Each structure stands twice: as C-alpha cells, then as structure tokens.
Amino acid sequence: MDAQLFDISYLNLFTGLFVVVLLAGMLVRFWLAGRQMRHVAWRREHVPEAFAGVISQAAHQKAAAYTIAKNQFDLWSSVYSAAILIGWTLLGGLGLLNYTLLERIEHPMWQQLSLLAVFFLINGLLELPLGWFQTFRLEERFGFNKSTIGLWLGDIVKGTVMAAVIGLPLAALFLWLMQEAGSLWWLWAWAIWVVFNLLLMVIFPTFIAPLFNKFKPLEDGELAQRVQQLMQRCGFNAKGLFVMDGSKRSAHANAYFTGLGHSKRVVFFDTLLARLQPDEVEAVLAHELGHFHFRHIAKRLIAMFALSLAAFALLGWLYNQVWFYTGLGVVPNMMSPNAALALILFMLVTPVFGYFLSPLMAQLSRKHEFEADAYAVRQTGNKALPDALLKLYEDNASTLTPDPLYVKWYYSHPPASERLARMAQAA
Ligand SMILES: [Zn+2]
C-alpha cells in the first residue's frame, strides 16, 4: 500500500482541473497585488486633492508603505499555503497520515475523528509562522502590534481548545450522518450546519468573545447620553453597546456589530473611543445601527446558507466519487469509511475554487456599507461620519489610492474617496 500512496497513475482529469484553477488563482493574486502595489507606489508622493490639508504627507506615505508591505506578505503567504496544500494532496501527505492512523486505530469512528484532529493540528502548526510574522514583524514594524508572545501563544491555546470542544462533537455528528443517514445525508448535515451557525452567533458575543477580550458597557457622560438618544431614535436596545479592550493586541481602531436576537450588540474598540470626538463616535454607531436597520446580518446569513447548501450538495456527490480522492493524491480506504477524508479534501479544495467567488461577496458587502453610511448621514448629518472615517483611515494606515480593480475583487468596504463622495452627495 505504501507504494500506492505516491503512485502518480492515480492522478486524473480532476488533478488537472485542480492544478489549473490553483495556478490561475495564484496568477490573479499576483496580478492584482502587483497592480495594487504599483498604483499605491506611484501615488505615494502626493496626497490626493480630495484629502489635501486633512491627511498629512507623512500619514499618506506611511499608508503606502504599509499597503505595499501587507501585499508582499499576502503573496508570500499564499505561495506558502499553496505549497502546504500540494504537500497534503498531490505529494501524498494526507494519504500518508490516513494510512498511519488506519494502521494504529481500529475503531472506524475514532480513526476518522483522529484523522480530522491530527490534520488540523499539523495544519495549524504549519500556518503558525505566518501568524507570527504578521503580528511580530509586519504589524510591529508599523507600530500597530501591542501583543506579546505570551498573549499571542495564549490566544492560540485558547482558540485550539475552543475549536476542539465545539468542533469535535460537530465533526463526529457529521461523520455519523455521512455513514448512516443515506444518500441525503448532506441535507441533514446542512440543516445542522445552519442551526450550529445560528447558535454560534447567539453564544459568540456572550460566551466566546469574552474569553479573549474584556467587554464593558459604555461609561456615563456626554458620550453615553448622546449614544442613548441615538439608539432610542433608531429603536435599538441600549443595552447592546459595549467597549472592548482592543488596545491589548493592536493599535488598529474599529467598531463592529455582532450577534442575533437578544445577543445582538455593537462593539467599539477602546482605541476608537480614544481617538474620536463624541459626535464622531455617534456617527460610527449610527453606521453600525444602519447595518441592523437594513437587516444586513440576516441578508449575509441567507447568502451564506444558500452557498453552503450548494457546497453540501456538492460534497454529498463527491463523497462517492473515487476520482475525487485519487485525483487529489489520496487512495480511499477499502475496508473503512472515507467520510473524514472527504471532509478534509473538500475543505482543502473549496477555497481554491471559491477564490473566484470573492468579488461577488465583496460587492455585496460594499453595497451594504454604502447603505449603512447613508443611514448614518440621515441620523447624524454629513460631517461627523466623514470626519471619523478620515481619522480611522489615517490611524489604520489605509491607503487612499487603491487600485480600482483590486478594490472590486477584495474590498469589503468601499475606498475612502467613494464613501466620502457619496456622503457629500447625500447632503
Ligand atoms: Zn459597516
């Protein structure tokens, strides 16, 4: 059997498709990143006219340097990750791991669960250098990193334990369905996936996020008063506003909305509150409330669930296709179930094909951002939010001159120039 693991005669048409799409994805990545870096570098010397007098030359140049450094890092990590992917699949890594566990563990369910667990552990370890470099080299170099090695390692340990506690029972349930629930197992699995995600959205803000950060209600004062009035005007429960100690890990400032039903909340990073004036914080909050007003969470969920239904149906079919395994360099088991193998291969391969869907998701997200901006302008006027955004762009060293095509493919938020222009129109 050892010899078969690396036998290239198993490779097939699907291998060809996989390699072509992987290479095409890499080419698009390099092409887009190259465009973005050139676009930013060529405009490094002059602050765009629309921002002259507001954004300093030094801040503009820092944003350019940061954007270029981030893109270089993204390219290196995508090459590194692609190498790992090839190692798992075509070079036989997953086949070898599967074979090793088959030899040592008899019970099929334990064998498959351990395959999943060991795979994720090894894969996580392989990805570790990327995370380290990003935090302690890239972010550090631009003064954004506030984390320590201890805190960083602690996060990884906590995250791994959480993933095991939540993920292993779920994985066991999926494996069981794949073997026992008949040809429509994927429909059941999808239903469980939907319920699981909804549940996660309810428990994440109250039980999981507090394991990593401290959340405090906004303290009294002028700001709290303004904020409460705004929330009343918008018909939002005032209990749902929290301040998070984001400064513990990073100097980046942000705000986000999360949760479902009673657990829904808006979270401000302490770094954001430290930087913005009360009226600007109010405008940022109004933007987040805009997301609730237009039910963006629900819309995003529906899009995600529809996509995952298609993905589960596809997996349901691939699960029984021998070429799917052999084409990816793995010989399926003859005497025991292949559910875990199918799950892992599917998770490895989906992002390769899914990369070409990212412009669609980004487009939807940018549309929602415009809507939330318009809502904020209606609630708080057309000065406070642009002022707040400019400060945030400057502090986060976000470039003001991105490449339009790069924006279309990746940006979940429209670039500053477009957002400000729209808000000025709305006045
Ligand atoms: Zn938003």
From TrEMBL:
<feature type="transmembrane region" description="Helical">
    <location>
        <begin position="12"/>
        <end position="34"/>
    </location>
</feature>
<keyword id="KW-0645">Protease</keyword>
<keyword id="KW-0862">Zinc</keyword>
<feature type="transmembrane region" description="Helical">
    <location>
        <begin position="184"/>
        <end position="208"/>
    </location>
</feature>
<feature type="active site" description="Proton donor">
    <location>
        <position position="373"/>
    </location>
</feature>
<feature type="transmembrane region" description="Helical">
    <location>
        <begin position="156"/>
        <end position="178"/>
    </location>
</feature>
<feature type="binding site">
    <location>
        <position position="287"/>
    </location>
    <ligand>
        <name>Zn(2+)</name>
    </ligand>
</feature>
<feature type="domain" description="CAAX prenyl protease 1 N-terminal">
    <location>
        <begin position="36"/>
        <end position="214"/>
    </location>
</feature>
<feature type="transmembrane region" description="Helical">
    <location>
        <begin position="339"/>
        <end position="357"/>
    </location>
</feature>
<keyword id="KW-0812">Transmembrane</keyword>
<dbReference type="Pfam" id="PF16491">
    <property type="entry name" value="Peptidase_M48_N"/>
</dbReference>
<dbReference type="Pfam" id="PF01435">
    <property type="entry name" value="Peptidase_M48"/>
</dbReference>
<comment type="similarity">
    <text>Belongs to the peptidase M48 family.</text>
</comment>
<keyword id="KW-0256">Endoplasmic reticulum</keyword>
<feature type="domain" description="Peptidase M48">
    <location>
        <begin position="217"/>
        <end position="424"/>
    </location>
</feature>
<feature type="transmembrane region" description="Helical">
    <location>
        <begin position="113"/>
        <end position="135"/>
    </location>
</feature>
<keyword id="KW-0479">Metal-binding</keyword>
<dbReference type="GO" id="GO:0046872">
    <property type="term" value="F:metal ion binding"/>
</dbReference>
<feature type="active site">
    <location>
        <position position="288"/>
    </location>
</feature>
<keyword id="KW-0378">Hydrolase</keyword>
<dbReference type="InterPro" id="IPR032456">
    <property type="entry name" value="Peptidase_M48_N"/>
</dbReference>
<feature type="binding site">
    <location>
        <position position="291"/>
    </location>
    <ligand>
        <name>Zn(2+)</name>
    </ligand>
</feature>
<dbReference type="InterPro" id="IPR001915">
    <property type="entry name" value="Peptidase_M48"/>
</dbReference>
<dbReference type="GO" id="GO:0071586">
    <property type="term" value="P:CAAX-box protein processing"/>
</dbReference>
<keyword id="KW-0482">Metalloprotease</keyword>
<dbReference type="InterPro" id="IPR027057">
    <property type="entry name" value="CAXX_Prtase_1"/>
</dbReference>
<feature type="binding site">
    <location>
        <position position="369"/>
    </location>
    <ligand>
        <name>Zn(2+)</name>
    </ligand>
</feature>
<dbReference type="GO" id="GO:0004222">
    <property type="term" value="F:metalloendopeptidase activity"/>
</dbReference>
<keyword id="KW-0472">Membrane</keyword>
<keyword id="KW-1133">Transmembrane helix</keyword>
<feature type="transmembrane region" description="Helical">
    <location>
        <begin position="301"/>
        <end position="319"/>
    </location>
</feature>
<protein>
    <submittedName>
        <fullName>STE24 endopeptidase</fullName>
    </submittedName>
</protein>
<feature type="transmembrane region" description="Helical">
    <location>
        <begin position="79"/>
        <end position="101"/>
    </location>
</feature>
